[in-house]
Design goal:
This protein is α+β, with helices and mostly antiparallel strands. The chain has eleven helices and 26 strands.
Length: 413
């Protein structure tokens, strides 16, 4: 697919994340209440205003400042709405004069969570990441647990602490125990980490007691975001046995402000990797379930940001639709606004790992930064920025950025 030209000039820049081919959904404000908006070049179209003016066919679905009402309306409505937006913003549109006052410079807007998050589940779907972490903790011969090649492993996290890019993150307090200590202690985490992930947003729900196929799950997915599931590795190491992550992950999860639709990413679909063992039939997928999305992590320790990792969504072993189908396989009801994290996405190379735990091999090999500093884990006031895009011919479909700065731990009462 080639670049689709728009009358919004900045949307035709080959380096913008937001050409007409993309049209991601966000929530923004310019001094008042959040409104539904669509990114186009360096501008945001006020979709709430366009709907009020009768320029869309959504009939009040875009008035709440979040996209949940449209998400719940289902794929037929999603497709019709996207086609209408494309016609409105395409070169040669008959509605330029009406829409121009509804465009706002993105640089002047404040971004908000684009959805009301119903539930948050985090998976562990990158084989390279699981192998690296398992090797560190259990040795190379026992790196992957016996179930990993058969089942998308996950845990249920906290929707209450999912925040939009730009929200500062306080270093968490927690209980830890040093290797040579007889008793645990309590205080700020000293091994604060990132997890570079893709988040999947469920649009249409499923009923309790009703499983879904992978192909049905694909149709339930509204879109994707960048996701940073901040992790306190020292808290995690002490608490995770026997029930898995808890407070080490519950304190914050950041997502990018723009939901990139499955339709926008469709030209970049790629299959999941070859399997060591055939998956059980309920995980069978009829079409490619991953996307060729280039991902990166940049770290700023007070000066210019430095890229410390580059990877790709293709490194996931289980697709978002497989994760969703597995989640519903027990009869678990999935809801509009459910957010599924992919788990850390790591590649095969030393600089393609999606966490500091891997990049520094548990802190044994600190990163040497261009400004002369070193990092094993995050320090206060560090800024982490995730970025991602799929590259087309003369255009890209991007997510913008997902950024968070670490603030000191709050004083415990």
């Amino acid at each position: 697919m080639a670049l689709m030209p728009s009358w919004v000039a900045s949307a035709n820049d080959p380096d913008t994340d937001f050409p007409l081919n993309n049209l991601p959904y966000g929530a923004f404000s310019t001094g008042g209440q959040p409104r539904c908006g669509v990114a186009i070049g360096d501008m945001i179209l006020d979709v709430s205003a366009a709907e009020t003016a009768g320029l869309t066919d959504t009939r009040g679905l875009c008035q709440d400042g979040v996209w949940n009402p449209l998400m719940a309306a289902g794929p037929t409505v999603w497709a019709s709405f996207r086609q209408r937006l494309t016609r409105l913003l395409a070169e040669g549109s008959d509605h330029v004069a009406e829409l121009t006052p509804m465009l706002h410079p993105a640089a002047d807007a404040v971004m908000h969570l684009p959805l009301t998050v119903a539930e948050f589940t985090d998976f562990y779907a990158s084989r390279q990441h699981a192998t690296n972490v398992g090797t560190m903790f259990r040795g190379a011969e026992n790196a992957l647990p016996p179930n990993w090649l058969h089942i998308p492993i996950g845990y249920n996290g906290r929707a209450s602490t999912v925040v939009v890019s730009g929200t500062p993150i306080h270093r968490p307090n927690g209980q830890t125990r040093a290797k040579d200590a007889a008793m645990p202690g309590f205080g700020p985490s000293t091994r604060l980490d990132i997890e570079l992930e893709i988040g999947t947003i469920v649009g249409t729900p499923s009923r309790m007691g009703q499983p879904v196929t992978v192909d049905q799950a694909q149709g339930m997915i509204f879109g994707h975001v960048l996701l940073n599931d901040w992790s306190a590795r020292d808290i995690q190491a002490w608490e995770y046995q026997p029930l898995g992550p808890f407070q080490a992950k519950a304190f914050a999860t950041s997502i990018s402000p723009w939901i990139v639709t499955t339709a926008a990413l469709a030209p970049f679909a790629v299959p999941t990797p070859p399997r060591d063992h055939d998956l059980l039939p309920y995980l069978a997928e009829g079409s490619p379930g991953l996307f060729d999305i280039k991902l990166s992590v940049a770290l700023s320790t007070g000066g210019a940001a430095q890229t410390i990792s580059r990877t790709n969504m293709q490194h996931l072993y289980y697709s978002p639709a497989q994760q969703l189908a597995h989640h519903a396989s027990s009869g678990c009801a999935m809801r509009t606004g459910d957010l599924l994290g992919s788990g850390t996405i790591s590649g095969d190379d030393d600089d393609s790992m999606g966490s500091l735990l891997e990049l520094t091999w548990g802190g044994e090999h600190p990163l040497q930064l261009a400004d002369g500093q070193t990092r094993s884990f995050l320090q206060d006031h560090d800024v982490v920025t995730l970025a991602g895009h799929a590259q087309g011919e003369g255009y890209r479909v991007g997510f913008g950025s997902c950024t968070g700065q670490i603030l000191p731990a709050p004083r415990f009462p």
